[in-house]
Design a protein that fits this description.
Blueprint: H1 5-13, E1 25-29, E2 32-35, E3 40-43, H2 46-49, H3 58-68, H4 81-92, E4 98-102, H5 105-123, E5 129-133, H6 142-147, H7 151-156, E6 164-167, H8 172-178, E7 183-188, E8 191-192, E9 198-199, H9 202-215, E10 218-222, H10 236-240, E11 246-249, E12 260-264, H11 284-299, H12 302-318, H13 320-323, E13 327-333, E14 336-341, H14 346-355, E15 358-359, E16 361-364, E17 367-370, H15 378-395
Parallel strand pairs: 3-15, 5-6, 5-7, 7-10, 10-11
Antiparallel strand pairs: 1-2, 2-3, 4-12, 8-9, 11-12, 13-14, 14-17, 16-17
Helix pairs in contact: 3-11, 4-11, 12-15, 14-15
The chain binds pyridoxal-5'-phosphate (PLP).
Pyridoxal-5'-phosphate binds at residues 48, 104-106, 109, 137-139, 189, 193-194, 222, 224-225, 250.
Length: 396
Protein backbone atom coordinates (compact mmCIF):
# COMPACT_ATOMS: atom_id res chain seq x y z
CA UNK A 1 0.00 0.00 0.00
CA UNK A 2 2.71 2.51 1.02
CA UNK A 3 4.86 1.93 -2.08
CA UNK A 4 2.10 2.98 -4.48
CA UNK A 5 3.23 5.18 -7.40
CA UNK A 6 0.57 7.79 -6.70
CA UNK A 7 2.32 8.72 -3.46
CA UNK A 8 5.35 9.81 -5.48
CA UNK A 9 3.18 11.52 -8.10
CA UNK A 10 1.45 13.56 -5.41
CA UNK A 11 4.79 14.47 -3.80
CA UNK A 12 6.00 15.79 -7.15
CA UNK A 13 3.13 18.14 -7.98
CA UNK A 14 0.68 18.68 -5.14
CA UNK A 15 0.91 21.30 -2.40
CA UNK A 16 2.39 19.37 0.51
CA UNK A 17 -0.31 20.28 3.03
CA UNK A 18 -2.03 16.95 3.69
CA UNK A 19 -1.07 14.10 5.93
CA UNK A 20 -2.92 11.55 3.86
CA UNK A 21 -3.81 7.97 4.55
CA UNK A 22 -2.08 5.87 1.85
CA UNK A 23 -5.30 4.79 0.20
CA UNK A 24 -6.45 5.48 -3.37
CA UNK A 25 -10.23 5.42 -3.56
CA UNK A 26 -11.65 4.80 -7.00
CA UNK A 27 -15.36 3.99 -6.62
CA UNK A 28 -18.24 4.28 -4.18
CA UNK A 29 -21.74 2.88 -3.80
CA UNK A 30 -24.03 3.51 -0.83
CA UNK A 31 -22.00 3.34 2.40
CA UNK A 32 -19.09 1.56 0.68
CA UNK A 33 -15.97 2.54 -1.26
CA UNK A 34 -13.37 0.52 -3.16
CA UNK A 35 -9.66 1.16 -3.55
CA UNK A 36 -7.44 0.70 -6.60
CA UNK A 37 -6.85 -2.95 -5.62
CA UNK A 38 -10.59 -3.64 -5.54
CA UNK A 39 -10.63 -3.79 -1.73
CA UNK A 40 -13.97 -2.83 -0.18
CA UNK A 41 -14.45 -0.50 2.81
CA UNK A 42 -17.45 0.56 4.80
CA UNK A 43 -17.11 4.35 4.69
CA UNK A 44 -17.87 6.10 7.99
CA UNK A 45 -15.97 9.23 6.94
CA UNK A 46 -18.11 10.05 3.89
CA UNK A 47 -15.97 12.94 2.72
CA UNK A 48 -16.11 14.28 6.32
CA UNK A 49 -19.87 14.30 6.83
CA UNK A 50 -20.73 15.34 3.26
CA UNK A 51 -22.22 12.28 1.60
CA UNK A 52 -25.43 12.20 3.61
CA UNK A 53 -27.02 9.80 1.10
CA UNK A 54 -23.86 7.68 0.79
CA UNK A 55 -22.00 7.35 -2.51
CA UNK A 56 -23.62 7.63 -5.93
CA UNK A 57 -27.21 7.68 -4.71
CA UNK A 58 -29.42 7.25 -7.80
CA UNK A 59 -31.58 10.31 -6.97
CA UNK A 60 -28.48 12.51 -6.72
CA UNK A 61 -26.70 11.03 -9.73
CA UNK A 62 -29.91 11.35 -11.75
CA UNK A 63 -30.47 14.98 -10.78
CA UNK A 64 -26.85 15.97 -11.51
CA UNK A 65 -26.83 14.11 -14.84
CA UNK A 66 -30.10 15.68 -15.94
CA UNK A 67 -29.10 19.20 -14.91
CA UNK A 68 -25.60 18.88 -16.41
CA UNK A 69 -27.23 18.12 -19.74
CA UNK A 70 -29.66 21.01 -19.42
CA UNK A 71 -27.93 24.04 -17.89
CA UNK A 72 -24.77 23.79 -15.82
CA UNK A 73 -23.78 27.33 -15.07
CA UNK A 74 -25.11 30.82 -15.70
CA UNK A 75 -24.16 34.12 -14.18
CA UNK A 76 -25.92 35.45 -11.10
CA UNK A 77 -26.84 38.33 -13.38
CA UNK A 78 -29.76 36.12 -14.42
CA UNK A 79 -32.36 34.01 -12.67
CA UNK A 80 -32.17 30.22 -12.59
CA UNK A 81 -34.91 27.85 -11.48
CA UNK A 82 -32.92 25.33 -9.33
CA UNK A 83 -31.47 28.22 -7.27
CA UNK A 84 -34.92 29.57 -6.50
CA UNK A 85 -36.35 26.14 -5.77
CA UNK A 86 -33.57 25.14 -3.34
CA UNK A 87 -33.77 28.50 -1.57
CA UNK A 88 -37.56 28.15 -1.24
CA UNK A 89 -37.23 24.63 0.17
CA UNK A 90 -34.59 25.70 2.71
CA UNK A 91 -36.72 28.63 3.86
CA UNK A 92 -39.86 26.47 4.03
CA UNK A 93 -38.09 23.89 6.20
CA UNK A 94 -36.11 26.15 8.56
CA UNK A 95 -36.59 29.20 10.78
CA UNK A 96 -34.75 31.31 8.20
CA UNK A 97 -36.13 33.83 5.70
CA UNK A 98 -33.33 34.37 3.20
CA UNK A 99 -30.61 32.30 1.55
CA UNK A 100 -27.39 33.05 -0.30
CA UNK A 101 -25.52 30.21 -1.99
CA UNK A 102 -21.74 29.85 -1.88
CA UNK A 103 -19.36 27.05 -2.87
CA UNK A 104 -17.91 25.76 0.39
CA UNK A 105 -18.25 25.80 4.15
CA UNK A 106 -15.61 28.48 4.67
CA UNK A 107 -17.32 30.73 2.13
CA UNK A 108 -20.66 30.13 3.84
CA UNK A 109 -19.25 31.13 7.24
CA UNK A 110 -17.47 34.12 5.73
CA UNK A 111 -20.79 35.17 4.16
CA UNK A 112 -22.47 34.83 7.55
CA UNK A 113 -19.77 37.03 9.10
CA UNK A 114 -20.22 39.61 6.35
CA UNK A 115 -23.97 39.57 7.01
CA UNK A 116 -23.27 40.20 10.70
CA UNK A 117 -20.86 43.04 9.93
CA UNK A 118 -23.42 44.71 7.68
CA UNK A 119 -25.93 44.31 10.52
CA UNK A 120 -23.44 45.91 12.92
CA UNK A 121 -22.87 48.76 10.50
CA UNK A 122 -26.56 49.42 9.94
CA UNK A 123 -28.02 48.71 13.41
CA UNK A 124 -25.21 48.72 15.98
CA UNK A 125 -23.17 51.87 15.32
CA UNK A 126 -20.57 50.03 13.28
CA UNK A 127 -20.03 47.13 15.71
CA UNK A 128 -17.91 44.50 13.94
CA UNK A 129 -16.44 42.07 16.43
CA UNK A 130 -17.42 38.41 16.34
CA UNK A 131 -16.96 36.21 19.39
CA UNK A 132 -16.39 32.51 18.76
CA UNK A 133 -15.17 29.58 20.85
CA UNK A 134 -11.84 27.93 21.50
CA UNK A 135 -11.48 24.62 19.67
CA UNK A 136 -14.04 25.70 17.08
CA UNK A 137 -13.48 25.23 13.36
CA UNK A 138 -14.98 27.63 10.85
CA UNK A 139 -12.86 27.23 7.71
CA UNK A 140 -9.60 28.08 6.03
CA UNK A 141 -10.03 31.47 4.41
CA UNK A 142 -8.14 34.16 6.34
CA UNK A 143 -11.32 35.49 7.96
CA UNK A 144 -12.66 32.07 8.93
CA UNK A 145 -9.19 31.14 10.18
CA UNK A 146 -9.33 34.22 12.43
CA UNK A 147 -12.79 33.13 13.61
CA UNK A 148 -11.52 29.60 14.30
CA UNK A 149 -10.48 29.11 17.92
CA UNK A 150 -7.08 27.57 17.25
CA UNK A 151 -4.04 29.72 17.89
CA UNK A 152 -1.78 27.36 15.95
CA UNK A 153 -3.80 28.13 12.81
CA UNK A 154 -3.57 31.89 13.44
CA UNK A 155 0.18 31.70 13.88
CA UNK A 156 0.68 30.34 10.36
CA UNK A 157 -0.66 33.37 8.50
CA UNK A 158 -0.05 36.59 10.41
CA UNK A 159 -1.40 39.15 10.66
CA UNK A 160 -4.89 37.82 11.25
CA UNK A 161 -7.88 39.92 10.17
CA UNK A 162 -9.13 42.08 13.04
CA UNK A 163 -12.33 41.67 14.98
CA UNK A 164 -12.32 38.09 16.23
CA UNK A 165 -12.25 36.92 19.83
CA UNK A 166 -12.33 33.37 21.17
CA UNK A 167 -13.65 32.33 24.57
CA UNK A 168 -14.21 28.96 26.27
CA UNK A 169 -17.01 26.84 24.81
CA UNK A 170 -20.00 26.10 27.04
CA UNK A 171 -19.04 29.05 29.28
CA UNK A 172 -21.76 31.70 29.17
CA UNK A 173 -20.00 34.03 31.62
CA UNK A 174 -16.91 34.12 29.40
CA UNK A 175 -19.07 35.14 26.44
CA UNK A 176 -20.77 37.84 28.46
CA UNK A 177 -17.46 39.24 29.65
CA UNK A 178 -16.05 39.33 26.12
CA UNK A 179 -19.09 41.21 24.76
CA UNK A 180 -18.56 44.93 24.22
CA UNK A 181 -20.16 47.75 22.25
CA UNK A 182 -18.06 46.56 19.32
CA UNK A 183 -19.64 43.08 19.29
CA UNK A 184 -22.00 42.40 16.39
CA UNK A 185 -22.36 38.63 16.67
CA UNK A 186 -21.60 35.39 18.48
CA UNK A 187 -20.56 32.51 16.24
CA UNK A 188 -20.90 28.93 17.50
CA UNK A 189 -21.16 25.33 16.38
CA UNK A 190 -23.92 23.49 18.24
CA UNK A 191 -21.58 20.50 18.27
CA UNK A 192 -17.89 21.21 17.75
CA UNK A 193 -17.20 18.68 15.01
CA UNK A 194 -13.55 19.15 14.05
CA UNK A 195 -12.74 19.99 17.68
CA UNK A 196 -13.60 16.41 18.67
CA UNK A 197 -17.43 16.12 18.58
CA UNK A 198 -18.13 18.17 21.70
CA UNK A 199 -21.83 19.04 21.99
CA UNK A 200 -22.94 22.35 23.46
CA UNK A 201 -25.00 22.21 26.66
CA UNK A 202 -28.64 23.04 26.03
CA UNK A 203 -28.72 25.61 28.88
CA UNK A 204 -25.63 27.25 27.45
CA UNK A 205 -27.21 27.76 24.02
CA UNK A 206 -30.42 28.97 25.64
CA UNK A 207 -28.38 31.42 27.72
CA UNK A 208 -26.45 32.62 24.65
CA UNK A 209 -29.74 33.15 22.78
CA UNK A 210 -31.07 35.25 25.66
CA UNK A 211 -27.81 37.21 25.87
CA UNK A 212 -27.89 38.01 22.16
CA UNK A 213 -31.50 39.17 22.47
CA UNK A 214 -30.68 41.32 25.52
CA UNK A 215 -27.73 42.93 23.72
CA UNK A 216 -29.37 43.18 20.30
CA UNK A 217 -26.51 41.24 18.70
CA UNK A 218 -26.77 38.33 16.27
CA UNK A 219 -26.41 34.66 17.02
CA UNK A 220 -24.75 32.75 14.17
CA UNK A 221 -24.75 28.95 14.18
CA UNK A 222 -22.13 27.41 11.94
CA UNK A 223 -24.06 24.34 10.81
CA UNK A 224 -21.66 23.35 8.05
CA UNK A 225 -21.13 20.01 9.80
CA UNK A 226 -24.24 19.70 11.99
CA UNK A 227 -26.81 20.76 9.37
CA UNK A 228 -28.66 18.60 6.83
CA UNK A 229 -29.87 15.88 9.13
CA UNK A 230 -26.52 14.98 10.66
CA UNK A 231 -27.65 15.32 14.30
CA UNK A 232 -31.02 13.65 13.74
CA UNK A 233 -32.91 16.85 12.97
CA UNK A 234 -32.78 18.64 9.62
CA UNK A 235 -30.73 21.40 11.28
CA UNK A 236 -28.72 21.12 14.47
CA UNK A 237 -30.49 24.07 16.11
CA UNK A 238 -33.69 21.97 16.11
CA UNK A 239 -31.96 19.34 18.26
CA UNK A 240 -31.49 22.09 20.86
CA UNK A 241 -34.68 24.07 20.31
CA UNK A 242 -32.63 27.28 20.04
CA UNK A 243 -32.95 29.34 16.87
CA UNK A 244 -30.03 31.35 15.47
CA UNK A 245 -30.40 34.59 13.50
CA UNK A 246 -27.90 33.50 10.87
CA UNK A 247 -26.84 29.99 9.86
CA UNK A 248 -24.14 28.57 7.58
CA UNK A 249 -24.53 25.29 5.69
CA UNK A 250 -22.33 23.25 3.33
CA UNK A 251 -21.05 19.64 3.49
CA UNK A 252 -24.30 17.61 3.33
CA UNK A 253 -26.29 20.29 1.51
CA UNK A 254 -25.72 18.70 -1.90
CA UNK A 255 -24.63 15.28 -0.64
CA UNK A 256 -20.98 15.66 -1.66
CA UNK A 257 -21.36 18.08 -4.55
CA UNK A 258 -19.66 21.40 -3.67
CA UNK A 259 -22.08 24.00 -2.33
CA UNK A 260 -22.41 26.25 0.71
CA UNK A 261 -25.03 28.68 1.92
CA UNK A 262 -25.69 31.26 4.57
CA UNK A 263 -29.21 31.93 5.69
CA UNK A 264 -30.59 34.85 7.65
CA UNK A 265 -33.75 35.78 9.46
CA UNK A 266 -35.39 38.88 8.05
CA UNK A 267 -34.34 40.99 11.04
CA UNK A 268 -30.70 39.96 10.45
CA UNK A 269 -30.79 40.85 6.76
CA UNK A 270 -28.92 44.10 6.25
CA UNK A 271 -27.35 43.37 2.88
CA UNK A 272 -28.47 45.37 -0.14
CA UNK A 273 -27.85 45.08 -3.90
CA UNK A 274 -24.12 45.12 -4.63
CA UNK A 275 -23.08 44.19 -1.07
CA UNK A 276 -22.18 40.59 -1.87
CA UNK A 277 -22.00 38.13 -4.76
CA UNK A 278 -20.48 34.97 -6.19
CA UNK A 279 -19.63 33.69 -9.66
CA UNK A 280 -20.35 30.01 -9.05
CA UNK A 281 -22.50 30.26 -5.91
CA UNK A 282 -26.08 29.16 -6.60
CA UNK A 283 -25.36 27.72 -10.03
CA UNK A 284 -28.04 25.39 -11.45
CA UNK A 285 -25.94 22.23 -11.18
CA UNK A 286 -25.08 22.54 -7.49
CA UNK A 287 -28.62 23.62 -6.65
CA UNK A 288 -30.19 20.73 -8.56
CA UNK A 289 -27.98 18.42 -6.50
CA UNK A 290 -29.15 20.20 -3.33
CA UNK A 291 -32.82 19.80 -4.27
CA UNK A 292 -32.36 16.06 -4.87
CA UNK A 293 -30.68 15.65 -1.47
CA UNK A 294 -33.26 17.68 0.43
CA UNK A 295 -36.18 15.87 -1.24
CA UNK A 296 -34.67 12.48 -0.53
CA UNK A 297 -33.98 13.50 3.07
CA UNK A 298 -37.48 14.82 3.72
CA UNK A 299 -39.40 12.14 1.78
CA UNK A 300 -37.65 9.36 3.71
CA UNK A 301 -37.24 11.15 7.05
CA UNK A 302 -33.51 10.49 7.05
CA UNK A 303 -32.93 12.64 10.16
CA UNK A 304 -35.12 10.16 12.08
CA UNK A 305 -33.07 7.28 10.68
CA UNK A 306 -29.90 9.12 11.73
CA UNK A 307 -31.25 9.25 15.29
CA UNK A 308 -32.25 5.58 15.23
CA UNK A 309 -29.12 4.11 13.67
CA UNK A 310 -26.79 6.63 15.33
CA UNK A 311 -28.35 5.91 18.72
CA UNK A 312 -27.85 2.21 18.09
CA UNK A 313 -24.20 2.77 17.12
CA UNK A 314 -23.58 4.77 20.29
CA UNK A 315 -25.27 2.12 22.43
CA UNK A 316 -23.23 -0.67 20.86
CA UNK A 317 -20.03 1.36 21.28
CA UNK A 318 -20.85 2.02 24.92
CA UNK A 319 -21.34 -1.68 25.65
CA UNK A 320 -17.68 -2.10 24.72
CA UNK A 321 -16.85 -0.22 27.92
CA UNK A 322 -17.34 -3.29 30.09
CA UNK A 323 -15.04 -5.40 27.93
CA UNK A 324 -12.71 -2.60 26.95
CA UNK A 325 -11.73 -0.36 29.85
CA UNK A 326 -9.78 1.81 27.37
CA UNK A 327 -13.07 3.37 26.24
CA UNK A 328 -13.63 6.62 28.12
CA UNK A 329 -16.69 8.15 26.50
CA UNK A 330 -19.04 7.93 23.54
CA UNK A 331 -20.65 11.25 22.61
CA UNK A 332 -22.55 12.96 19.82
CA UNK A 333 -25.98 13.15 18.27
CA UNK A 334 -27.48 11.25 15.36
CA UNK A 335 -24.74 10.29 12.90
CA UNK A 336 -22.00 12.54 14.32
CA UNK A 337 -20.32 10.37 16.91
CA UNK A 338 -16.99 10.24 18.75
CA UNK A 339 -15.59 7.36 20.76
CA UNK A 340 -12.88 8.60 23.11
CA UNK A 341 -10.28 6.33 24.67
CA UNK A 342 -8.05 6.61 27.71
CA UNK A 343 -4.98 6.18 25.50
CA UNK A 344 -3.76 7.90 22.31
CA UNK A 345 -4.63 4.96 20.12
CA UNK A 346 -6.73 6.52 17.36
CA UNK A 347 -3.94 6.46 14.72
CA UNK A 348 -3.30 2.77 15.28
CA UNK A 349 -7.01 1.99 15.54
CA UNK A 350 -7.86 3.79 12.29
CA UNK A 351 -5.04 1.97 10.51
CA UNK A 352 -6.27 -1.39 11.79
CA UNK A 353 -9.88 -0.55 10.91
CA UNK A 354 -8.73 0.17 7.34
CA UNK A 355 -7.06 -3.23 7.23
CA UNK A 356 -10.36 -4.70 8.40
CA UNK A 357 -12.39 -2.79 5.82
CA UNK A 358 -13.73 0.25 7.70
CA UNK A 359 -12.94 3.95 7.28
CA UNK A 360 -13.22 6.10 10.43
CA UNK A 361 -11.59 9.43 11.27
CA UNK A 362 -8.97 10.01 14.01
CA UNK A 363 -10.49 13.32 15.14
CA UNK A 364 -8.26 13.52 18.26
CA UNK A 365 -5.18 11.49 19.21
CA UNK A 366 -7.43 9.57 21.63
CA UNK A 367 -10.77 9.71 19.77
CA UNK A 368 -12.26 8.43 16.54
CA UNK A 369 -15.16 10.11 14.75
CA UNK A 370 -17.92 8.25 12.91
CA UNK A 371 -19.94 10.10 10.24
CA UNK A 372 -21.88 7.40 8.36
CA UNK A 373 -24.47 8.25 5.72
CA UNK A 374 -27.88 9.05 7.19
CA UNK A 375 -29.58 6.19 5.34
CA UNK A 376 -27.37 3.58 7.01
CA UNK A 377 -29.09 0.30 7.94
CA UNK A 378 -28.85 -1.48 11.29
CA UNK A 379 -27.05 -4.36 9.59
CA UNK A 380 -24.40 -1.96 8.27
CA UNK A 381 -24.10 -0.45 11.76
CA UNK A 382 -23.53 -3.94 13.18
CA UNK A 383 -20.91 -4.61 10.53
CA UNK A 384 -19.01 -1.45 11.50
CA UNK A 385 -19.19 -2.23 15.21
CA UNK A 386 -17.80 -5.70 14.72
CA UNK A 387 -14.93 -4.26 12.66
CA UNK A 388 -14.16 -1.75 15.43
CA UNK A 389 -14.31 -4.56 18.02
CA UNK A 390 -12.03 -6.75 15.96
CA UNK A 391 -9.59 -3.88 15.39
CA UNK A 392 -9.45 -3.09 19.11
CA UNK A 393 -8.84 -6.76 19.85
CA UNK A 394 -5.90 -6.69 17.49
CA UNK A 395 -4.20 -3.59 18.85
CA UNK A 396 -4.74 -4.07 22.59
C1 LIG B 1 -18.25 23.72 11.32
C2 LIG B 1 -17.45 23.91 10.07
N1 LIG B 1 -17.41 25.12 9.50
C3 LIG B 1 -16.72 25.34 8.37
C4 LIG B 1 -16.01 24.33 7.76
C5 LIG B 1 -15.24 24.60 6.49
O1 LIG B 1 -15.86 23.98 5.43
P1 LIG B 1 -15.08 23.82 4.02
O2 LIG B 1 -13.97 22.87 4.26
O3 LIG B 1 -16.13 23.31 3.07
O4 LIG B 1 -14.60 25.18 3.62
C6 LIG B 1 -16.01 23.05 8.33
C7 LIG B 1 -15.23 21.95 7.72
O5 LIG B 1 -14.93 20.97 8.33
C8 LIG B 1 -16.75 22.83 9.51
O6 LIG B 1 -16.79 21.63 10.10
Amino acid sequence: MTTAPWIEREKAVYMPVFRRTPLMLVRGQGPRVWDDHGREYLDFVEGIACNVLGHCHPALVGAITKQAGTLMHVSSLYYNEPQLELAEKLVANSCMDRVFFQNSGAEAVEGAIKAARRYGMVHLNGAYEVISAWHSFHGRTLVTTAATGKEAMHALYPPMPQGFISVDYNDLEALKQATTDKTCAILLEVVQGEGGVYPADREYLQGVRQWCDDRGILLIFDEVQTGMGRLGTLFGYQTYGVEPDVMSLAKGLAGGFPIGAFLTKEKATAMAPGDHGSTFGGNPLACAAGIAVLDEMLDNDLPANATKVGGYLMERLRTMEAKRPVLREVRGYGCLIAAEFTEDLSGKLVETCIKNGLLVNPVLPNAIRLMPPLNLTMAEADEAISKIHQSLEEIL
